[in-house]
Design a protein that fits this description.
The structure holds 2 protein chains of 2 kinds. By secondary structure, chain A is mostly helical. Helix content of chain A is 75%, strand content 0%. In chain A, helix 7 packs antiparallel against helix 9 and helix 8 runs antiparallel to helix 9. The radius of gyration of chain A is 21 Å and the shape is elongated. Chain B has 2 domains: 169 residues, 3-Layer(aba) Sandwich (Rossmann fold); 66 residues, no CATH class. In chain B, the strands form 4 sheets. In chain B, strands 9-10-11-3-12-13 form a 6-stranded mixed β-sheet, sandwiched between helices. A 3-stranded antiparallel β-sheet of chain B has the order 2-1-4, with no helix packed on it. The longest helix of chain B is centred in the C-terminal third of the chain and has 17 residues. The chains are: A mainly alpha, B alpha/beta. At the A-B interface, helix 6 and helix 7 of A face strand 9, helix 3 and helix 5 of B. Bound molecules: adenosine-5'-triphosphate and magnesium ion. Adenosine-5'-triphosphate binds next to helix 1 of chain B. The site of adenosine-5'-triphosphate has 10 residues of chain B, from helix 1.
């Protein structure tokens, strides 16, 4: 047993690495909320009914207009006063997901709006059911447009999970900070953490590229025709705009 | 169609229109831009709900049901029932870009008429061959010329075997050299089919070729109607004369 002062990063490596699955799980869980919220807000804001459109717009503006950290603290410290006691995990995932969803709603709205009205009208004239129109006509034209921005959102989410260290969730950044304070040498641990985030971001971009191919194939946009813009579009999400949480 | 009025805001686009098309009848609708021709077809297709009046197609009301001799407003379900008898071809083709020519025709057959994949395929191949696209079955809209796309759109509507087909200026988005191929397809169709047709067009020769009746429309009203020989060659109304003159000088 070495003295504390003699310990190196190697001793704490397992502790740090255990943060990886936690960070990934947080990213995926928040992204699920992001997608759900993005569709609800996005379709709500595109609705013809004012009673749906206005509240959706209001919620989106509130979420976008205030800092995510403030929202996180609010969910964590203020909500309990209203009798809503969320675990740090639930509060964190909800705040990150809803926040991302507020931004993603614009992508969803724009993607649906980009499908020409004539498509729906032709489908109605052919007597296709509403469900079929959505599934076979509208979504195949709207979803492929959403994938590259979704890639950005996913990698942003990875980066934002570091915020959750502020509410005692022991993900990667939390652990890096803790280890740094014991080692008293910020260099190695932060450098390694940076590399780990970078590797995770690369893995996520690979996942998004796969998703893009899969969605386009599902949508019937074969490699022959619809894919010309693919590789160029992808590069925007391929390079992670990475930054460390704080 | 009876007493059909269509307003957008305070603007009346179609005013108390009374129009009926008999089985097999081919009706051409002419009139200046903005006169409401497209609106009439969209009303007949059930894409718009009229502000007033009712529309009945092949025995079904589009937006009403008859109960105890009274007409009650009805919703989308009733509209879908009535729409089965109608097909429409649009100015902008509106093919589904992510599907091949073949799929554009077969998907509605499978989904709406519940044909088997094989029957749908056979019917679609037959129709696409009839419109001269036998060698382009697996092309996507982006790989087809405008004229070819419009012929796919015609085949797609025909496949559902409507009782009435509506054509809205189906050649006006086409390059001039492609207009003929599409008009020929419709001309053939008009001469061979028992379907009724309502055709909005600026092609006067074409209209006089195929129409049993021509309707001159302006400002939401019928200005003049009758056989092509009368309306197109010997119009009575000064408005029609003026319109035809303007078209011929174009
Ligand atoms: N959704 C709408 N909202 C408001 N006004 C509309 C709408 N659709 C059509 N109009 C108006 O109704 C009038 C008639 O339009 P319509 O498209 O039926 O004319 P048209 O005879 O088909 O003309 P064109 O020859 O240019 O196609 C136009 O003045 C148009 O501006
Ligand atoms: Mg028109």
């Amino acid at each position: 047993m070495r003295y504390l002062a003699e310990r190196t990063l190697g001793d704490y490596l397992p502790l740090l690495l255990q943060g990886i699955p936690i960070t990934l799980e947080l990213t995926l869980a928040s992204t699920v909320v992001l997608v759900a919220a993005g569709f609800v807000f996005g379709l709500g804001r595109g609705s013809r009914n004012r009673l749906i459109r206005w509240p959706a717009g209001f919620v989106v503006e509130v979420l976008r207009g205030s800092s995510a950290i403030a929202q996180l603290f609010w969910a964590f410290y203020v909500l309990p006063y209203f009798g809503v006691e969320l675990s740090p995990l639930a509060a964190g995932i909800a705040v990150l997901g809803l926040n991302g969803g507020a931004y993603f709603s614009e992508v969803v709205r724009a993607a649906f709006a980009s499908v020409p009205k004539g498509q729906t009208e032709a489908a109605i004239a052919l007597n296709l059911s509403a469900w079929f129109r959505l599934r076979r006509i509208i979504l195949p034209q709207a979803l492929p447009i959403m994938v590259p921005p979704f890639g950005n959102a996913l990698i942003d989410m990875l980066k934002f999970t570091a915020l959750l260290s502020l509410v005692t969730i022991q993900e990667l950044a939390y652990r890096a900070d803790a280890i740094r304070s014991v080692l008293e040498d910020a260099g190695p641990v932060y450098s390694l953490t940076l590399l780990i985030y970078f590797a995770m971001a690369l893995a996520l971009s690979a996942l998004v590229q796969w998703l893009e191919v899969a969605v386009n194939r599902w949508a019937g946009r074969s490699t022959r025709t619809g894919r010309k813009a693919g590789p160029q579009e992808r590069s925007t999400s391929g390079v992670p705009r990475w930054a460390f949480g704080r | 169609m009876r007493d059909v009025t269509m307003r957008y805001g305070s603007r009346t686009v179609v005013d108390s229109l009374l129009l009926s098309v008999k089985p097999r009848e081919k009706v051409a609708i002419i009139g200046p831009s903005g006169s409401g021709k497209t609106t009439i077809l969209r009303l007949a297709m059930g894409l718009e709900r009229p502000s007033e009046g009712w529309i009945r197609i092949d025995g079904n009301y589009l937006w009403h049901v008859e109960r105890n001799g009274a007409l009650l407003p009805a919703g989308e379900q009733q509209a879908r029932r009535a729409r089965r008898a109608v097909g429409m071809v649009f100015q902008q083709f509106n093919l589904f870009p992510h599907m091949t020519a073949m799929q554009n025709v077969t998907e509605p057959l499978v989904h709406v008429l519940r044909l088997s994949k094989k029957d749908a395929h056979d019917r679609a191949a037959d129709l696409l061959t009839r419109v001269g696209l036998a060698t382009h079955l697996d092309h996507r809209p982006a790989q087809l010329s405008g004229g070819q796309q419009q012929r796919v759109a015609i085949a797609r509507s025909l496949a559902l075997r409507p009782k009435v087909m509506l054509f809205d200026e189906v050649t006006s988005a086409l390059d001039p050299e492609l207009v003929g191929e599409v008009l020929n397809v419709i001309r053939d169709l008009a001469h061979t089919t028992s379907m009724a047709m309502m055709i909005v067009t600026h092609e006067i020769t074409f209209a006089s070729d195929i129409a049993d009746r021509v309707i001159m429309f302006d400002h939401g009203h019928v200005v003049e109607e009758g056989t092509p020989d009368v309306v197109l060659r010997n119009p009575q109304s000064p408005r029609t004369k003026q319109f035809l003159k303007a078209i011929l000088e174009r």
